[in-house]
Write a structure and sequence with these properties.
mainly alpha; Tetracycline Repressor, domain 2; 12 helices; about 0% strand
């Protein structure tokens, strides 16, 4: 019996790779699990030799930074409303949507917090909103950091929930409700609400509380400035 010949492996023509084509492939690989993202895996998907990628990205770290910067470039802020609190709320929601649409990138963002200029551009939007509220630089940076930390933590929490088994929320509720009330009275009381943890509804409650604190700080700063102005008149 005649043996069949092994399939002939084709290679991409030399010089046909572009930076954007490599990033397209890298994103496809990363969506299967960020830990699988390597130059070799991207090259295999492109049917190219790994060395061909080095003309564009010398290391995996360079590739990761470029990929994360590309994702952050998709941030789409809402137009200004004329109310800085509404603008800040819209910023928070838009930033969280970006993270929720790319859950595979969350862990990488923690280890690459500033992968490129797009991270700075996102920050500039929020910092401009907060500065316009009359806050000191201390409060501007603290409020921005708190908002970003909330979004990263919330999205990571929600991503872990969504990756769980179907009906996981119900299982959480049932498991908590089954705990002995004598030992865990408060946990038993909130068991039903815990089934909705990391939800959009809970997020809106938390962001409202955060913004209320920022608004209070802005009002205090305005009162202090007005008092200083009256004393110097």
């Amino acid at each position: 019996m005649q043996k069949s010949s092994p399939p002939i492996r084709t290679r991409r023509p030399r010089g046909s790779l572009t930076r954007e084509l490599i990033l397209d492939s890298a994103e496809d690989v990363a969506q299967q699990g960020f830990e699988a993202l390597t130059l070799r895996a991207v090259a295999a998907r492109l049917e190219a030799a790994p060395m061909a990628l080095y003309r564009h990205f010398a290391t995996k770290e360079e590739l990761v930074d470029a990929l994360l910067d590309r994702i952050l470039g998709r941030f789409a802020p809402e137009p200004p409303t004329g109310d800085w609190i509404d603008d800040l709320r819209n910023f928070a929601r838009a930033h969280r949507r970006l993270l929720d649409h790319h859950p595979w990138a969350l862990a990488a963002f923690f280890s690459h917090p500033n992968p490129g200029l797009n991270a700075t551009r996102i920050g500039e939007v929020a910092l401009s909103i907060l500065s316009g509220a009359g806050l000191s630089n201390e409060y501007v940076v603290a409020s921005f950091s708190g908002l970003i930390a909330l979004n990263y933590g919330w999205s990571a929490f929600a991503s872990a929930r969504d990756a769980g088994p179907i009906g996981g929320a119900s299982q959480v509720r049932e498991a908590l409700a089954a705990l002995p009330r004598s030992t865990f009275p408060r946990t038993a009381d909130v068991a039903g609400e815990m089934a909705d943890y990391a939800s959009d509804r809970h997020y809106e409650l938390v962001i409202d509380e955060l913004l209320a604190g920022v608004r209070s700080a802005a009002r205090s700063a305005t009162r202090a400035k007005n008092a200083d102005h009256r004393r110097t008149r």
